[in-house]
Fold this sequence. Notes:
By secondary structure, this protein is α/β, with parallel strands linked by helices. The chain folds into two domains: 2-62, no CATH class; 73-269, no CATH class. The protein has eight helices and 13 strands. The longest helix is centred in the middle third of the chain and has 15 residues, at 170-184.
Amino acid sequence: MRASKKLITPMGRRRRSSLVTPKEIHISGAEGLYRESEVVKVVKKYIERALNHPRGKADKIVITIEEIREKPKKIPALPLVTIENSSPIEGEKIARKLLQSEGISKMAVNKTFELIKKDSMRGAAIITVEKGKRLEPNRKRGVRVSRLGISKSASKQLSARLTRHGINNETVMEALILASKVSFCNNVIAELCVSDDPNYTTGYVASKGLGYVRIPHIKSKGNRRGGRAFFVKEGTGIRGIIEYLERRPVIIGEVSLCRGIISFDEILNRPYI
Ligand code: WAQ
Ligand code: MG
């Protein structure tokens, strides 16, 4: 699902008869892998999401439903943990340190934060770990991870584990599924995510080594800017990565450890892996 809204600027309103094209802003996107019997229910949920979104009410909703013949690849979810944090300044520092601990250069991290703070994107940027070069062919759209889901039994188990930490909601579930699919890609070293929802201030850094590390208060409340970046090795072929992220069906079949809030020092020691 892709939902957007036309922004009519004061100038556009005055000159209605002229050829001023209103700016279309991204409101919400969602994708998943479901059984046929679930499709109607899921589409209804997506439409409701687009019409009641904190970023604004969508005036255009595009829904694409495709039958997938390829058997989904089953992968485990990343282990989940939340870092103790109470301010956006500290939150950004934590994210930077985690990314650098995974080998992402300072320059690449700087460029990524600049990008995320500038404008909200519909998809993710693909950024090289050393030079911070952007590789995705369509920068306005970015790359949308799609064809991803979770098995019934893993979903039940994940819900139970997230409930213990008071975070059993769709936002966390969907983000963990996405991050698990992304990190399973050999060429992706790490991911940074900041929500573009003005009310949602928790972001995360994810990688094979760190797992899914939630960072509360990574941005201030009311801030509509957010985005995602996938860091890849210098010289990696972009086509194979995009093919995997956008088209390869992947299902979470197994849940990993879900921990509560821990301090930053503890996470760098990685005692839970
Ligand atoms: N593929 C690639 N990029 C995406 C996708 C996707 N399927 N969906 C969203 N994005 C990008 C896009 O640039 C958005 O602006 C940005 O990510 C943020 O998307 O553990 O809600 O849907 O508490 O706002 C993370 C923390 C929440 C969850 C993430 O992201 C937790 C979130 P949003
Ligand atoms: Mg959002």
